[in-house]
């Protein structure tokens, strides 16, 4: 059987093209181990779908996407249906908005997908069709029956992440020496704008030994020099970091590979920074979100403070670890004065780079529920591309604005002010950046994606 996995991305956005399709790599690796590499040929792509459908001639197609690209996923599903191919859709969007499954999609995989996709492939192998008779007993899916969405019993999560085969990276379009991996699933926190904790339900961690084996694979097989941990919170378990450092040291790899990760500022203290430095972490992305106490509490709860943010940035910078950050402006309760407090905060701390996003409601989050309640999102909402918070400048006139204090134009003007500060800080500190060799390319990509939006009046 031939299985085609498609990541529905916006091919005109360079960062989406570069982003590794590790989720589909995990599915491919699981299928090959569970069902057999010789009997199931898997291909993973993120573009040229129509051409690959003709040349690869798959028996079944799986499509994964986030909400901003759901219209692209629907278009791909329609292409598949023209060739009478069965279509499975998975990923964050369909898991949190299963009722949006289109008529060109036979079945949706909800939440964690490895065991579910393997069972679906086995079912199709046996029956040669997806219908209610063979789908109703499969856990963790949604499908349409007589035009109405049907949801089966939820599937338990895989308890031990060490049992999951590593991603089939040989099927991915891997280039360069900056690679990525996951060492956990889930997040124990519940930020109002983030759906990660709703998607994963619980937080699970791979062991230090499992992580070390994957690092060895990336170093020896792919020539990795820098590995980014894409976990929501890589540093939560201090002992795991200690164990990982010890294992890499014994394996002779410590110091030969550098790392970057994401973190939450209330988890960073001097002990943690020391551990990160010993492991070889050179860059940390912090979700600081706001420099104003009231807004920070609204966004992230009471578990983190502005002082935590200041302490974390200073502690990292002092030890030579590059602190980067993300901020969110334009929530419904935030005033212009509170936004400008964040602007001043950014200027007051030693950040090397930052991103700012205008609050965008995504399915499964409290701000999505707020947008629905306020009538900003209708029951039949289908304009998914406006949920792309990364490229707000390109579509701000169509974006869903939650602010009760600022008009669309006022918020856009403030956003541009933040972006100009971002460029100033980034290029002022460029020589300190751990990815300094990539800066010319990064500048070119930033120019293509952002400048047009910044100069628009």
Describe the fold and architecture.
The structure is a single chain. The chain has 457 residues and is an alpha/beta fold. It has two domains: 2-151, Rossmann fold (3-Layer(aba) Sandwich); 176-455, tm_1862 like domain (pyruvate-formate lyase- activating enzyme, Alpha-Beta Horseshoe), CATH 3.80.30.20. Helices cover 42% and strands 16% of the residues. The protein is built from 18 helices and 15 strands. The chain has helices at 14-18, 22-35, 49-56, 70-82, 92-96, 114-127, 132-135, 196-200, 208-222, 238-250, 270-279, 293-300, 306-318, 336-348, 366-373, 392-395, 408-428, 439-455; strands spanning 2-7, 41-45, 60-64, 87-90, 107-109, 141-145, 148-151, 178-181, 184-185, 204-205, 226-229, 258-263, 281-289, 322-329, 353-358. Strands 2-1-3-4-5-6-7 form a seven-stranded mixed β-sheet, with helices on both faces. Strands 8-11-12-13-14-15 form a six-stranded parallel β-sheet. The protein has a two-stranded antiparallel sheet with strand order 9-10. α2 (22-35) packs across α6 (114-127) and α10 (238-250) runs parallel beside α11 (270-279).
């Amino acid at each position: 059987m031939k299985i085609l996995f498609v990541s529905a991305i916006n091919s005109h956005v360079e960062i989406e093209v570069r982003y590794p399709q590790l989720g589909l790599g995990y599915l491919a690796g699981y299928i090959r181990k569970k069902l057999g590499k010789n009997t199931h040929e898997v291909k993973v792509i993120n573009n040229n779908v129509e051409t690959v459908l003709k040349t690869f001639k798959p028996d079944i197609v799986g499509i994964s996407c986030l909400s901003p690209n759901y219209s692209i996923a629907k278009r791909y599903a329609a292409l598949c249906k023209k060739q009478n191919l069965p279509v499975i859709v998975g990923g964050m969007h369909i898991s949190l908005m299963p009722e949006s499954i289109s008529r060109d999609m036979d079945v949706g995989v909800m939440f964690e997908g490895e065991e579910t996709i393997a069972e679906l492939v086995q079912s199709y192998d046996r029956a040669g069709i997806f219908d209610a008779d063979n789908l109703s007993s499969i856990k963790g899916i949604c499908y349409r029956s007589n035009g109405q969405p049907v949801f089966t019993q939820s599937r338990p999560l895989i308890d031990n992440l060490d049992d999951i085969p590593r991603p089939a990276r040989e099927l991915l379009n891997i280039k360069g020496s900056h690679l990525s991996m996951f060492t956990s699933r889930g997040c124990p926190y519940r930020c109002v704008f983030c759906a990660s904790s709703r998607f994963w339900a619980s937080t699970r961690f791979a062991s230090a030994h499992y992580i070390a084996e994957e690092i060895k694979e990336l170093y020896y097989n792919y020539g990795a020099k820098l590995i980014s941990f894409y976990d929501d919170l890589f540093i939560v378990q201090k002992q795991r970091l200690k164990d990982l450092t010890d294992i890499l040291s014994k394996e002779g790899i410590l110091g030969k590979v550098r790392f970057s990760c994401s973190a939450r500022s209330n988890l960073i203290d001097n002990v943690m920074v020391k551990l990160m430095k010993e492991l070889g972490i050179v860059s940390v992305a912090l979700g600081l979100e706001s420099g104003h106490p009231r807004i920070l509490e609204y966004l992230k709860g009471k578990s983190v403070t502005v002082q935590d943010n200041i302490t974390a940035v200073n502690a990292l910078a002092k030890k030579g670890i590059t602190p980067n950050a993300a901020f969110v402006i334009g929530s419904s309760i935030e005033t212009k004065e509170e936004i400008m407090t964040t602007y001043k905060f950014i200027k007051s701390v030693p950040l090397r780079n930052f991103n700012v996003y205008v609050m965008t409601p995504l399915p499964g989050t409290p701000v999505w529920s707020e947008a629905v309640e306020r009538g900003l999102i209708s029951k039949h909402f289908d304009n998914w591309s406006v949920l792309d918070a990364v490229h707000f400048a390109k579509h701000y006139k169509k974006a869903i604005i939650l602010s009760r204090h600022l008009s669309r134009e006022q918020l856009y003007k403030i956003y541009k002010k933040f972006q100009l500060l971002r460029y100033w800080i980034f290029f002022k500190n460029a020589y300190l950046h751990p990815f300094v060799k990539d800066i010319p390319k990064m500048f070119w990509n930033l120019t293509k994606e952002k400048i047009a939006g910044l100069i628009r009046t």
